[in-house]
Batch of 2 targets.
Target 1
Amino acid sequence: MYIDNFYLPKSLTQLAEALGKKDGDTYIVAGGTDLVIHFSKNCIYDYKLIDITHIKELKAIEEMQYEVIIGACVTMTEIENSPVIDKYIPALKTAAYKLGSQQIRNRATIGGNISNSSQSADTLPVLFAYGAEVEIINSKGQKRIDKVENVVIGLEKNNLQKDEAITRIIITKCSSISAFAKVGSRTSVTISKVNCCVKADANIDGKISNAVVYIGAVGAKPIKAELVGGALIDKNLKTISISEIKEQIQNQIEAAIPSRSSKYYKKEASVGIIEEALNNLKLAR
Amino acid sequence: MGKLKYVGKSILKEDSYDKATGRTKYVCDMKRHNMLYAKLVLSQKAHADIVIDKTEALNIEGIEAIYTYADVPKVQYNSHQWYAGATAFRDEYLLCDRARFVGDRIALVVGKTKRAVEKAVAKLNVIYKELNPVIGIEAAKSDEIIIKGNTNLAFSKEIFCGSYEEQFKKADYIIEDKGSTQKIHHSAIEPHICLSELDEQGSLTVWTPCQIVFQVQYHVADILQIPYNRVRVIKAVMGGSFGGKGQTVLEPICAFAAYTLKKPVMLYMDRHDAILGTRSRNATEMIVETAINKEGKILARKIITDIDGGAYYTNAAAVTMALGKKLFRMYDIPDQSYTGNAYYTNTIPGGACRGYGSPQAHAVTEINIDHAAHKIGMDPCELRLKNFVKPGASDPTGGPNIGNAQIKECVLKGMEAFDWKNRRQTIKNKNTERYAYGVGMACGAHGNGYFGAFPDFTNVEMSILGDGSVLVKIGIHDQGCGTVATMQQLAAEALDIDTKHIRVTEADTLITPYDSAGTQASRVTFVCGGAVKEAGEKLKQRLINAFCTLKEFKEDSVETRDGLIYRKDSDKKYTYADIATEFETKYSQTMTEFIKYQSPANPATFAACFAEVKVDKYTGHVEVTDFLAVHDIGQSVNPMLVEGQIQGGAHMGIGMALREEIEVDNNGRVKSTNFSKYHLINAPEMPEVRVLTVEAKEPYGPYGAKSVGEASAVAPPAAVVNAINFALDTNITTYPVTPEKIIKNLYRNKKWSTQNG
């Protein structure tokens, strides 16, 4: 499992061992789609790697009685194709599908998307909206659980200790419906200029009783759009028009990035993506 | 002219399977014994004096040499100058001690491995003594900071015919538009690369995916002060150019390193380097004033174009002239004035980019034509139809005859195929609260080589060998467009022998005859193709003469067909090989012709493009939902390749309209240094591009053919923007029309838009 500057743990025990040897030049790699770019951008030529993709426990999507558990090394393509995800976290399926190109999605992992903590990460608004948690292992083999929203600091920073690694993502099952939408510089293979997740509970007639909205890329990490979520309550999914909540959406963006010149565009574009998300929710209902 | 057998057929080009399956070897796949790798260190500052401390970088294991300004010959050159006679201001060194743009060559690191080289590049201690940079045309014009000499104005020229002032007085309307076009990266998938070594005789060999081997030979020899005949330049397999590999950026410094170190050196770039450290399409700002009468006749036009020439002179004069000349060749405007000014700025130098000024020339003027039509309530196609040049028209500024211009036919054909009138009337019925729909069109003109401006000729040696196979030695550079296939088809037609028997060389200064101007300027099908046709016809005549002499037949009793020659009334058929061999045996001569072909003309080539767009008024996204391109190409040599060219041109054109831009900030830094930030249109965003051709035969073109590859990138940008303007009732004139720009235009009366400038 250890060759000079390359660790290849095959179990969580071996991972803990490797984490014990991790120094400032050691990086955890799964898909590598962000890490390789990080290396070349920062002219990093000498490094050690812990490749976690050979640990079986990190590669499965499991449906438990109360939770859906996603291994840190599950790829976007696997999420996109999973019936369990489709059933319980539909917005995550869309977010995974809309991330990068097919080649990227074949390798990029959910653990990587969380730990890379980019401000425009596509799975984060969904994970935040579902209150998802992560299981984290350290060099002693101890595990701790924390909210994704806490782990992610944003702007490519997270709160993991040097000897820690994300192992699994835990999402409590619920009957909510959800949708994800994004806008980038083009319609596909694009980095989000703004993205969103709308998660809601609606009765059979379409009346919304509860709504959680997160908007991404308008700050270091996705923000909870309380104004928008609040405005959706008691609205009917079947008849709602975007004009009814447009003001709240724009106020939310204004509050999030009052001094950024990109707010003028994002205020309009957010209306577009939330309408798209609501349209998708209508279809889900 | 009889029925064509090979010209006009969609023959698969020879390299298709190898390229599609990854078997093709490019320069980056080449390996030489003891080969070293090299990478340029590019300036991170737009305007700065440079001091370099090599100590630390030289200590990295595997580093062979690090060159800076102090080490290179102090010979200035102009990377655009393609032969000694095309004089242009020389202001570049192999490596500089004053950086003039972010991306300027300041050092070359050579080492045994790429890893060592890249480490040393990162470690090299560069001390910048910063100077204020000149960014953008406005700053250049002010001359507050001067980059070199005593003004930033590098070149200025007026081209005119008649007197526009007189006509402006008589006009019912004068329609003015002010617009701009952006800096564009060529985005060839193969980044720039070059390999040099010394051969057994100590002469230099340079492999490069380039567009003119003789230009590379000239610069390498001139800078290293060695004879031309000691420099062999071989055009390597190329992964795209689009004009981006037209100037000698890497070859002279790579050759210098190989020559100095006496070892093979491969100089390679990644995308970051290719975007910053090579060339870009010139950005422009244009003011157009068009005088029309109520009936839609254009009376006169005045155009002022300012061109961002970048940090070095390169093509400042050439692109200013090329851009201007096109404006006199599509509409019949007797009184017109064009003033072009090229300025130095501390940004990426300008270079050829598919269309060479024509996309810029038509970008704003074609929006202006739609604006004029709108002003008088006329259909924009109808207004254009009233004003197009006629076939055989002369150039009002004294340039070469416009040739068999079929632009009117293109528009008529396009209107019918696109159902233009109906769609223009009804498209907006599809509008919703969120989406606006529109259709628009635009036209464009381009040329066929250098005739009328610069020497335009090529030499060809064509032989029928002992086995009947044909070798065509000509200095062409296939950029992936199928240039070799095109020449094979033209030779096959002239010789009446199947293309599979014909080998056409690519340029190699040691083995292919001299070619005056390289594979650029849309000259290859028209000029080099003309040469191949003439050589083929002469060679076939030589074969017939030989046959008649050997067999004592009369010429009019003899016929050729599919590689066989025979007397019409006889069943006895001879192969070309039979005659070539018998001729050699009996007369001690080869079946070879060598011709020196001068281009006889430079007609214009035209296109009309039609686009439908769906604009998302919330996100500002534009989807091009339908696209039709109608091209006046004289005669299609290979319809499949023609279609591919036009689709590719539409792709680049839509990119220019909507997305692509090298954005430079006030300090001269570029953010878009990779493809996640430099936004090309990708496959899911491309509409199906429908292609129609008008093939009315160009009198001086081989079998009537004229150019298409560059011309296909000229009309699409304005067609898309005109469709957007129709959809939104706007008059956007600045490229690219990004989502942000659309949103800004839609809500321009709202408070935020004033805040946002």
Target 2
Amino acid sequence: MTDPLHVIALRLLIGLTASLELAALVLLLGTAGGVVLATISNFGGRLGRAFLFTILYLARGIPLLVWIFAIFFVLPHVGLRLSAFTTAAVALTLFASVTIAEIFRGGILAVPRSQTEAGLALGLSPLRSFILIVLPQALRVVLPGMISQFVFLVKASALISLLGVSEMMHVGREIIERTLQGFEVMALIWIFYTMVCLPLGMFGRWLERRLAVGGQGVTRPKSVGGPQIAEPSLRG
Amino acid sequence: MAEGYIFHWLPVLEAMPRLLGGVATALQVAALSVVGATIIAFLGALAARSARRSLRVTAMIYLEAMRNSPSLVKMYFLYFGLGSFGVFLPPFVAATAALALQNGAYMMEIVRGAIAAVPSGQRDAALSLGLSPRHTFFKVTFPQAMRNALPPLGNNWVEIVKDTSLTSALSVAEVYFVFQSVMALDSRVYELLIVLAAIYLILTAAVGAGVQLLERRFGRAYRVTR
């Protein structure tokens, strides 16, 4: 028994909305988490930086799939019974917070020190001058990185299908198991992901070029020496 | 952690041979993927810099087709999708090929960027000294490009090692898959998770250390000697 192509496409698109919903939610929560972590590493002194470094090391050294599995197992075990979708959101948010913190850390470093000093000279407290003066300027530098983070999250949401959350890949696999239309389903899924991620990726790169040229006193940090901005881990 | 959970390490110890077998499989997948991806990356980078427009466009389409969807999609495509045409790849082959195709695209961008980052004066100088274009590329441009490319390539190799966990989706018996099957029997999940995390940390750290050795080798010509 085979399904007509438009029926498959429609089901997959419904699955895609779940992927996008998840990615958007995680980007939002992850940004909040990332800003907090970046602030900690900025003000926490050596201990704060060591903390961020450790979780960054763990996040980069262990596959995302293992992290997600761990969250899926540990949360119910400590008595937090959430829906599969929420659990997936928690798992991805924890991971995204770390990478977003790294993106923000790079953005904060790109804001000249004199900006903080000017804020302090005007009588703002260190925290207020950080939040009111440095962060908004860092936002400009951070924007392209955030877009590729979103693209990464859309692609990473495919992993959730392996833990039984109903998103596009999961819907697709279920159709394949029922109808054996492997080629049609996978070709459509491939096209749908590309339709979402390609324009976003192009926009991100365009934005990066624009901001790199016309930054008002904001220059991107050189990647010589110090840790790179989260680029290498933003894949799916 | 839940109250009353008591750690028992003996079942994990008994499962170690199977887990290490999974590590061996994961390393096979990773090594073959790296080789395949490297070949794709260099051919792709040459195509992307070719004077022929058709080659450049092909390379660009390949790049965008790969990097805008998860590698899981390519894995399923090779495994389930080709089945519609009567081509049935073994899971190991489909999974390894998918990782090679996906990472070949990422690495192609790295190599292309690294070659472009070598100052054109280097090429001009070599050509004016009478080196053939081929010699110029392999003796002058390429070694310098590799020096630029190695740190991001190394990051990519680490990612490939981690990505082997995805091949469990096609039931390739690598370490994450073994972990899941052991867990289903023993339910010593916390112990197993700790061991699994340690295994991956050791693997990625080892690859990272290897990359640093390579970086030192390629950076030798630039070291200041006193």
